[in-house]
């Protein structure tokens, strides 16, 4: 993308401009939100990857994104740039979302109308293992992703049990509870 423009770029322009930089860092741009109402306007870049965004990575991506955007946006046009992750309230809609949320607790609504709170296990062959508590024991249920109407990661305030993590295929990744 060559030359400076006047005003704010479009969502498409921002994605095209920043995509290569984010991919090199191991992340993909999930969304770009441009809000021109506040002064200065805000450009929010929502990125996700197989490893969670940490503060150092956010800072590095913010610096490189800002430098690229500064070259695109006319010098006198101020803006606020925010690089962030999707957050836990984003519904899991694609296989990569389920894979990235491995070993996290989710509330899922299934196509048959039932709901389940479960720990996400291994994702493969368009299905996911859900570790659920049934009759005072942990059980693994293999559910096709197409049968999950909605799934949202839950915030946890205590660590999961070792057996639950083991069944999710994540033994040793969390502190033993």
TrEMBL record:
Residues 92-157 form the Ribosome maturation factor RimP C-terminal domain. Keywords: Cytoplasm, Ribosome biogenesis. Pfam families: DUF150_C, RimP_N. Residues 24-89 form the Ribosome maturation factor RimP N-terminal domain. One of its GO terms (cellular component) is cytosol. GO terms for biological process: ribosomal small subunit assembly; translation. The keyword Cytoplasm applies. Gene3D superfamilies: RimP-like superfamily, N-terminal. It is found in: Cytoplasm. Its main location: cytoplasm. Required for maturation of 30S ribosomal subunits. Belongs to the RimP family. HAMAP family: RimP. NCBIfam families: PRK00092.2-2. This is Ribosome maturation factor RimP. It comes from Mycolicibacterium aromaticivorans JS19b1 = JCM 16368.
